[in-house]
Amino acid sequence: MAQFQWPNGRRAAVAFTFDVDGETVPYVMDRERAGERLSFMTRHQYGPNVGLPRILELFDLYEIPGTFFMPAFVAERHPDGVEAIVRGGHAIGHHGYMHESPMAMDADYEEEVLEKGIEVFSRIAGRRPIGYRSPAWELGARSPALLVKHGFAYDSSLMGDDVPYRVEAGGGDLIEMPVHWISGDFPQFGGLFGIQSPDVAFEIYSQEFDGLYETGGIWVMTMHPFLTGRPSRTDLLERLIQHVRERSRVWIASLDEIHAYCREAAVLPTLKTVTTDIPAPRWLRPPAEPRT
Ligand SMILES: [Zn+2]
Predict the structure, then answer these.
(1) Residue 1 reports pLDDT greater than 70
(2) How many angstroms separate the first and last alpha carbons of the chain?
(3) Ligand 1 (single-atom ion) residues, CB below 5 Å
(4) How many CA atoms, within 13 angstroms, populate the side-chain half-sphere of residue 23?
(5) Could you tell me the domains of the chain?
(6) C-alpha of residue 99 to centroid of ligand 1, in Å
(7) What is the distance in A from the centroid of ligand 1 to the CA of 270?
(8) d(CA 90, ligand 1 centre) in Å
(9) How do residues 150-174 score in pLDDT, each as one tens digit?
(10) Ligand 1 center from residue 225 Cα (angstroms)
(11) Is the pTM for the entire model greater than 0.90?
């Protein structure tokens, strides 16, 4: 298989990405009582309040750019956090208004959420986001066309390859920056029970990176400041940065930067192109009649 052509003789690309979900999660989980559940709320506020500054400091130290997806409600609550992200030269992307899954909305609602987020980021970050990540990685079949319609240039919610690819939709396209659960902090640290040690997580992540380095892929690592922003895990992130940097031919970049490269005239036609069609099965056993 032909290898993906990365710039300047690089062999693979790495994007450290964060979903700054903040206060939205308690509202998604328990809309009625979120405002009363102080412990639950502070677990998630820890992300933008404590985890995010710690992560930004680490990235500053290593002089690497990150990509931060944020629900617009969190941007409104934490304009200083948005400002610090922009000031640090990082990319900022749309992640819903209240972390709404596209699978739980109708088309009008989904569009309203996109517009609301664009308005909020234009006001607070001073620019409209070009990247989108679907909350809960639940992009719907109609979502890519809506994203194209609203001027988004890339998405990072699908799992269809290990290199960037084009998704044709709505008379245009998105560049897809593929993710996977193996390269996320939620499976290791998100569960209340069965939390893994940073050593176990390091083994899983570094092996996945090593594999993608060998095949010339893009390693999109997805983390959450309320999880990876805790001290033991920020140390893990630092170990990962060092591990990645031991390879000389790695391009550590933001998804905005990787997107810009993929859009270059010489590169774009080399990308694999897919549509949003999901094939219907040729045969499905009819559901059993309910017993009376
Ligand atoms: Zn999220």
Answers:
(1) no
(2) 56
(3) 19, 21, 135
(4) 15
(5) 14-29+39-275 (3.20.20.370)
(6) 6
(7) 31
(8) 18
(9) 999 999 999 999 999 999 999 999 9
(10) 10
(11) yes
